[in-house]
Design brief:
The complex is a heterodimer of chains A (about 240) and B (about 280).
Chain A (H helix, E strand, L loop, with lengths): L1 E10 L2 E11 L4 E5 L6 H8 L7 E6 L2 E2 L5 H8 L2 E4 L11 H5 L1 H6 L4 H14 L15 H12 L6 E5 L7 H17 L3 E6 L2 H7 L2 E6 L2 E6 L1 H6 L3 H11 L1
Parallel strand pairs in A: 3-8, 3-9, 6-7, 7-8
Antiparallel strand pairs in A: 1-2, 1-4, 4-5, 9-10
Helix pairs in contact in A: 5-6
Chain B lengths: L16 H30 L6 H12 L4 H24 L7 H39 L2 H7 L4 H38 L5 H11 L2 H27 L6 H34 L4
Helix pairs in contact in B: 1-6, 2-6, 3-4, 3-6, 4-6, 4-7, 4-8, 4-9, 6-7, 6-8, 8-9
Classes of the chains: A alpha/beta (about 240), B mainly alpha (about 280).
The structure holds adenosine-5'-diphosphate (ADP) and magnesium ion (MG).
Chain lengths: ~240, ~280
């Protein structure tokens, strides 16, 4: 579904990605893991076209997006959902308006149909009846869940999650992880989760991609990653456990 | 609108000054290039508006136009009053005080009406657009728009751009009317001039082309305010935080003011000298 071939990206003089190769298959839940600043967010921003690569090729839904025109890319983006690290809810709109945003922009559904979908998605993230609240009135965990409801409003085939559990308490972390797993299994969504939270990674991942200083250093199932003798991976796992 | 913002900040300390000057010039040029791209994208999406376009536009017309009206009227009326006082004394030296009506009308309609209105709007609307878009940028809301297959220029810039381009001439017209009224009131009440004569003078001084010149200026200033404000808001790096937004906001107003003055000079030159309008 997604493939990176030798992707490079620099900001000014700073090299962020130096030749990333990775693939993500239909239906899997892949966790991209690595220390802060190693280029995880940049990697998923490349996949959704928020950042353009300097070199290499990127494929989404088996179409090369590297040189793709915005209009064409938009038809791909309609099949993608993304949960941002901060939630990125539109603070001038209510929760309901946030969730129905793509439905308003890209479909001809009636108001009643849109409201039904909004209610259904809010139900899925355990926040029923919160349509009329403003993002400012929500707690961090609620904001992430509304962001999630917005990301799945158009029933996407792939959802990207950027640090879905960072900054949340352990109970909320567990709940979000459960939500991600449920969405992946019940709706057959391909999930790409970026995190530096090891525990979450091992809980939800079918496969883990380990990044370090702009490179993929290891990839495998959670068991394989735990048993690898790659020193960088060991250090990361060990460092967190201390 | 991608995240590739590096503002040419990577200038090494130990390079010779000439290379630093060159880098600065290159940074300016690339900034100019980005403004050009924004203008192009705005023109492109102007004809491919978002779905709920009308409501977005009406909201902006309200903010840019209706909410600015009181300040614009106040500025306009005082400009006219000041011009009447100045004009009366300056013209008195040439025994031409009776020309105050002419002086006020011409100055207001061709120069000060558009200019003062644009200044008010640059400070009021330009800064607030930059602050709003900048905040959306650092909280990833602009990225979110983009990922949701709605180009930020289409959804955010186009309505603000149109509101400025429509409202600047409208507000300028209001400002002009109040400017002339201010001049009238001053001439009649302070200098005991004949009101009808003042208005007659004003009317004789104004040609269709004078009004046209004022409106051309107003539209150009509207374009400057909207594009500068949106560009500054967008080009805050995602990592800029609240400080980045603050800096960009003042930067936006100052840059608009300077560009408005430059544009005013340029338009005066083109319209009077080259096209020989009156
Ligand atoms: N838009 C940008 N402009 C400049 N530098 C950036 C930008 N986005 C990311 N970076 C830099 O790239 C590096 C990797 O960032 P990121 O992918 O966000 O790391 P993380 O793995 O923590 O998500 C960081 O050092 C960051 O400073
Ligand atoms: Mg990150």
């Amino acid at each position: 579904m997604i493939r990176f071939e030798n992707v490079e990206k620099s900001f000014g003089a700073k090299r962020v990605l130096c030749g990333v190769d990775l693939y993500i298959q239909k239906g899997e839940t892949v966790v991209i893991m690595g220390p802060s600043g190693c280029g995880k967010t940049v990697t998923i921003k490349l996949a959704v076209g928020l950042v353009k690569p300097d070199a290499g090729r990127i494929f989404v839904f088996d179409q090369e997006i590297t040189e793709m025109h915005e209009q064409e890319f938009d038809s791909i983006r309609k099949r993608i959902g993304m949960l941002f690290q901060s939630g990125a809810l539109f603070d001038s709109m209510t929760v309901g308006e946030n969730i129905e945003f793509m439905l308003v922009q890209h479909t001809s559904l009636t108001k009643a149909e849109r409201h039904r979908i909004v209610a259904e998605k809010l139900e899925m993230v355990n926040l029923p009846g919160t349509e009329d609240l403003k993002p400012a009135e929500l707690s961090g965990g609620m904001r992430k869940r509304v962001g999630l409801a917005r990301a799945i409003a158009m029933d996407p085939e792939i959802v990207f999650y950027d640090e879905p559990t960072t900054g949340l308490d352990p109970i909320m972390t567990g709940e979000i992880n459960l939500l991600i797993s449920n969405l992946a299994h019940n709706l057959h969504i391909t999930s790409v989760v970026v995190t530096h939270d090891m525990k979450s990674a091992f809980t939800i991942a079918d496969r883990i991609i380990m990044m370090h200083e702009g490179r993929v250093v290891a990839t495998g199932t959670p068991e394989e990653i735990q048993q690898t003798d790659n020193p960088i991976v060991q250090q990361f796992i060990h460092g967190i456990r201390l | 609108m991608t995240n590739d913002v590096d503002n040419g900040k990577d200038i090494a300390e130990n390079e010779p000054p000439s290379s630093r000057v060159l880098q600065q010039i290159l940074a300016w040029l690339s900034e100019l290039g980005r403004v050009g791209i924004l203008l192009y994208q705005t023109a492109y999406y102007l004809f491919r508006p978002p779905t709920n376009y009308i409501s977005l536009l009406i909201k902006q017309l309200g903010t840019v136009g209706v909410d600015s009206l009181p300040v614009v009227l106040l500025t306009g009326i005082f400009t006219g009053m000041v011009l009447a006082v100045q004009g009366y004394h300056q013209l008195a030296e040439m025994s031409a005080s009776s020309w105050v009506g002419n002086f006020v009308a011409v100055s207001v309609i061709k120069e000060l009406g558009p200019m003062m209105t644009a200044f008010v709007l640059a400070g009021r609307i330009g800064a607030s657009i930059t602050a709003e878009l900048g905040t959306m940028r650092v909280t990833e809301q602009i990225d979110a728009l983009h990922v949701m297959a709605t180009h930020p220029v289409r959804y955010l810039v186009v309505p603000r751009f149109l509101a400025c381009v429509i409202m600047l001439p409208v507000l300028t017209t209001f400002s002009n009317v109040f400017g002339i009224l201010g001049g009238y009131a001053t001439a009649v009440w302070l200098f005991n001039m004949n009101g009808a004569y003042f208005l007659k003078q004003a009317q004789l001084a104004i040609f269709t082309s004078s009004v046209l010149i004022g409106l051309i200026k107003a539209v150009s200033f509207g374009i400057i305010i909207a594009i500068v404000a949106c560009h500054r808001g967008f080009s805050i790096p995602t990592t800029g935080g609240a400080e980045g937004v603050g800096k960009a906001t003042t930067g936006s107003a100052v840059q608009s003011l300077i560009l408005i003055l430059v544009m005013d000079f340029f338009l005066n030159y083109v319209l009077y000298t080259l096209l020989e309008l009156k």
